[in-house]
Amino acid sequence: MKSFIGCCFCLFLASTSVKAQKHEAENATLSGGATVQTSASRSNGKYVAQNGGNLNFSINVPTTGYYDISINAAAPSGSKVNVFYVDNNSINFTTNDIEFTSVKIVTGLKLSSGSHTMKVIASWGYINIDFIEFKAVSSSNRFDTNATLITPEPTDAVSRLYQFIYDNYGLKIISGVMTLNSMDEVNWLKTNTGKEPALVGLDFMHCGRNYNWYNDDEPINDAKTYFNKNGIPALCWHWRDPSRTTEEFYTNKTTFDINKVFDESSTEYAAMISDIDYISTKFKKLQDDGVPALWRPLHEAAGGWFWWGAKGAAPCKKLWQIMYDRMVNHNGIHNLIWVWTREPNDDDWYPGDEYVDIVSRDIYKDGDHTSQILEFSDLNQRYARKKIITESECGSFPDPDNLLNDGAAWSWFMPWYGGFVRDSKYNSLALWQKALSHEYVITLDEMPDLKTYEAVPKPPDPILVLEGDANQTIQVYPTITESFIQLRSDRPIGQIQLVDSTGKMVFNQKFSTRSDSLNMSGLTSGLYYLRSGKSMKSVRIMKK
Length: 544
Fold this sequence. Notes:
- The protein has 544 residues and is an alpha/beta fold.
- It has three domains: 21-137, Sandwich (Jelly Rolls), CATH 2.60.120; 156-446, Alpha-Beta Barrel (TIM Barrel), CATH 3.20.20; 464-543, Immunoglobulin-like (Sandwich).
- The chain has nine helices and 29 strands.
- The chain has an eight-stranded parallel β-barrel.
- The two termini are 30 Å apart.
- The relative contact order is 0.12.
- The model is unreliable at 1-18 (pLDDT under 50).
């Protein structure tokens, strides 16, 4: 097994010289009671009192690139949450300060040149808005992803799985689906699309309860079966009342008190530890069989609808840390990738970088197949670009064309079972067929052998940058070769031509992939020029 490499897709993209652009709120189209106010202390001497209304900005972006977007606003009536739209993508944002201040909405958002619509839509409303501002940033440092797992001495199998996820992050998305009973939705997709997803979602919901109608080994048997087909098992846990007073996990149906996590002498603490130890025995079976897994416990905690989120951030955070320590250091479980599921405004809930490998979001927006780029960019910014970001659950999954167009680099998507998979209200069969045959989407038949997977080799120095269209840049390496040239970009590579030193074209092909190679082994030794895009600017390649 090769050692983990440094970030393989820090893309060496050229930064743009476009300066920050400011768009005054009073120039927006106002509706619903939003009004222009005068104030000598504000930009251009005016601002907009939103009240319960909305602002609609028409903005021209001169150059395709990545942008940070901020809003200069105040919340004189106290903290307010509203919705910010860029075209069809939306995200909630919070304004806390009484005085006007800059509120970062999104970092590193990809915008194409041309006209865009940006909106501030009232949710709680009643903020004052001076202007929105966006400035171009280089995408070369868009990701600084952790290359190693948090678990000490991870198993070979889980290291290889994480390496595969790491290598594909930002280049492709892994397809997934949640199951209720063994492989039900996987089989439905196979029957109706001819394809199976690369990832399968499984649940420990019925485990450890002594149900006579259920085999507690079903989730791990399914995990092993799918991994042996080169699939990725993803385990969650709808953790029923540890006290066994009820069989519930929803806050409104059980009185189990997570605050007892701070009292090691309590029966509730002992019950939680007992359940954690039991689930550890299941993962130990997988570990002994050489099977790794994605592990997503205590999901959607800050939503408050599960008992582990019923008493606020502190006990939930403590329980996560105890669970990690118990499973890893006490029970010897080293075959897991730990996935934290973020909810809005849950910074205080986050267990800490040393306890989390991957950060996820569960997004349910019926019939919405946009890229959710604002959600993605927010998470990437919030976790300092160091964590792989993924859409761990969804109702309607993103159209892969939208993902490519927006640069939304979700690691995987996983619609929930039942209607979310089969009902066209959420995802049409046509969209499933399109997605599972799309070059950007990884399906089960395209998976490598995860038992022997090796890291994608790190590009050697020097790396040349070939300019494509619309600020696209393409890594080209090596520059002296006997056989292959590697090409990598943040979007489909496009047209590539190779000419010899006399100007004769020896290669001309359009690449729809974002990572590919060009075979020069059949060419004579000498100097060649590789070029791309409408400008056909070139870089020099020496064939040995």
